[in-house]
Design brief:
Elements: E1 3-10, H1 14-25, E2 30-33, H2 40-43, H3 74-87, E3 92-93, E4 98-104, E5 107-112, E6 116-124, E7 131-132, E8 145-146, E9 159-163, H4 167-178, E10 182-186, H5 201-209, E11 214-216, E12 220-224, E13 228-233, E14 236-241, E15 244-247, E16 251-252, H6 255-261, E17 287-289, H7 304-307, H8 309-322
Parallel strand pairs: 1-2, 1-6, 2-3, 6-17, 8-15, 9-10, 9-15, 10-11
Antiparallel strand pairs: 4-5, 5-6, 7-16, 12-13, 13-14
Helix pairs in contact: 1-8
Amino acid sequence: MFQHYSLLIIGGGPIGLACALAAKHAGIDYLILEKGCLTNSLYNYPMNMTFFSTSERLEIGGIPFVSNNVKSTRPEALEYYRRVTLSNELNIRLQEEVLTVDREDAHYRLRSNRHTYTATNIIVATGFYDIPIYLGVPGEELPKVVHYYKEAHFYAMQKVIVVGASNSSVDAALETWRKGADVTMVVRKDKIGDRVKYWVKPDMENRIKEGSIKVYFNSHVRNIREREVDIETPYGIETIANDYVIALTGYQPNFDFLRRIGVQLSNDAVLQPTYNTDTMESNLPNVYLAGVVVGGMNTHLWFIENSRIHAEKIIQAIIAKRG
């Protein structure tokens, strides 16, 4: 016999936890399956990252999040979500990846890397931070190229290229420069991103203006070699010496997984999943989407603070179907 649950939640990030809290409050038996550690995406954020949102906007289940800072930090968020999980005794299994989801009459069968389950309802809350958007250039496979940035000390006194102009790129450029790296940014547009945190953007622009951090705007990395990188600029190809490339060009949801389980995606570059905005139910009956995954490639549209409501919508929809 397989273990059966009324609700199985795929993803143990903040929104997956919010769904579990709502399910528990409603008396629905549930299980969270998380392929990595608790709040795996947050764990993989840069060590010194500061959230754009204040702590109350990161709260789930009405549980207070008290921060020592105006803006919450990664360590504070990890501690908050860990305490929420433990104090509420949420039913979660970590390091367990869902591999397949198959519909069988009135329920679904889910096979993980450890067990097989059946469930009446499924919530997919898998986020978007697991799959980088690659540059697609020769040399990207070299060990010197990374698509995640943790902390700056490793890059001290090295020649570093940071690709991108988002919050993560700007943070990496400033932090590595302050640790003594020779930093060059490669930006495909003509300026630093408009969504860069308002207290960080002037710092970045001033470092560029004074020449402390070099930048190539309207430019692309074209070739990466052991000790050099070719950059295509509006004025031709520039070749510069380089030790490491931090390519922070964004991340995307696991579209292959969504397709495999049968969720329909839009036929454009956005690849937005089909779902009902009132209930969050996908084109598959009793399969719901929650969190940033609902935006497809528009990963900047949904955050913890504006997708917490998905949990309540879904649980209300499940209760309504029960009659």
